[in-house]
Design brief:
By secondary structure, the protein is of the alpha+beta class. The protein has 4 domains: about 80 residues, no CATH class; about 30 residues, no CATH class; about 120 residues, no CATH class; about 55 residues, no CATH class. Helix content is about 50%, strand content about 10%. Strands 3-4-6-5 form a 4-stranded mixed β-sheet. A two-stranded antiparallel sheet has the order 1-2. Strand 3 and strand 4 form a beta hairpin. Helix 1 crosses helix 3, helix 4 packs across helix 5 and helix 10 packs across helix 11. The longest helix has 21 residues. The protein is extended. The chain starts with a helix and ends in an 8-residue tail after the last strand.
Length: about 300
């Protein structure tokens, strides 16, 4: 009997911790006022926060209020966030920890080891807004020239590989991941992608809000082209072309509902199978253009979420 109560107590504690971490998420439409105390205090938050409990609530009647009521009563949503929860606090703490490491490595000191020097110098370069403004689009010119030099579809695979190598995830996503069928293996994963808007439905829905969002998106893309130096009339045409191209990608992309089915997003192939699905427009030379392998262990099998995206 004593063992039973111990087990039940441990289970209750685990459920309370899960509730505190997984469900204490507040939306800004319920509590728009906020302060930054949550961000500044997160480092002191323990894994199991007793003060998050509402001990006046009966856990048998309202377990959520019992587990999270104390936290909800004292927490307000930061003004720069739409929602806020315990995992949000954890993420902020992780971000602060990473920033502390980077700012420490950024300091030019003889005590820095080679890794710290590389990390710190890279971070300092990224944070140098003045230098970035001075250089403008000049660092991108070699890549923009390669895009402008595209002559035919046969040249596209080499260009796409180059863009991916530079961190531009055009047309599809590519990276390393655990094999869904064998979690002990890391394989290359190819997934649908290439969309500037969050989801395919943003391109396909015809309700008033979706139409307005697409107009705003095209206006934003147009502005980006203008900032890159294009004339307004050129930028407008280019923005329309971007929307047309991305809409085409959206039409062949799987819906979120379909992607919830693990069997629909798992098509494991070996190298020979993957080569048979390469684009018919690619020449033998361009089709072998490598995209940098995500990891040393992921160069053999390839998982794709849809056959439409296998020609990587």
């Amino acid at each position: 009997m004593r063992r039973f109560f111990v087990v039940m107590a441990l289970a209750l504690a685990a459920m309370t911790a899960m509730a505190q971490n997984a469900k204490t998420e507040k939306k800004n439409d319920t509590k728009p006022a906020a302060n930054m105390a949550a961000k500044s205090q997160q480092k002191a938050i323990p894994g199991f926060d007793v003060t998050a409990l509402d001990k006046n609530a009966d856990p048998c009647t309202d377990f959520y209020q019992f587990a999270c009521g104390g936290w909800e009563a004292r927490t307000q949503i930061p003004p720069d966030q739409a929602i806020w929860g315990r995992f949000s606090e954890l993420n902020e703490r992780n971000q602060e920890t990473l920033r502390d490491i980077l700012t420490k490595d950024e300091i030019n000191s003889a005590k820095r080891n080679p890794v710290a020097r590389q990390v710190g110098d890279f971070y300092a370069a990224c944070m140098d807004e003045k230098l970035a403004d001075e250089k403008g689009t000049a660092p991108m010119q070699p890549l923009l020239e390669k895009i402008a030099a595209l002559k035919s579809k046969a040249d596209l695979p080499a260009l796409v590989a180059k863009l991916h190598d530079q961190g531009v995830r055009t047309m599809f996503d590519f990276g390393s991941q655990q094999d869904f069928g064998d979690a002990s293996k890391v394989i290359a994963g190819v997934d649908q992608g290439g969309l500037g808007l969050p989801d395919r439905d943003y391109y396909l829905k015809e309700d008033a809000k979706s139409v307005e969002l697409r107009k705003a998106y095209v206006a934003n893309v147009e502005k980006m082209f203008e900032l890159a130096g294009d004339k307004p009339e050129e930028a407008a045409a280019e923005a329309d072309a971007v929307m047309t191209f991305e809409t085409g990608l959206a039409k062949v992309a799987m819906s979120r509902v379909d992607r919830r089915d693990p069997q629909k997003v798992y098509h494991r192939m070996d190298k020979a199978q993957r080569r048979r699905w390469r684009p018919t427009s690619a020449s033998p030379s361009t089709s072998r253009t490598p995209i940098r392998p995500p990891s040393p262990r992921s160069t053999s099998p390839c998982r794709t979420s849809s056959r439409a995206w296998t020609p990587c």
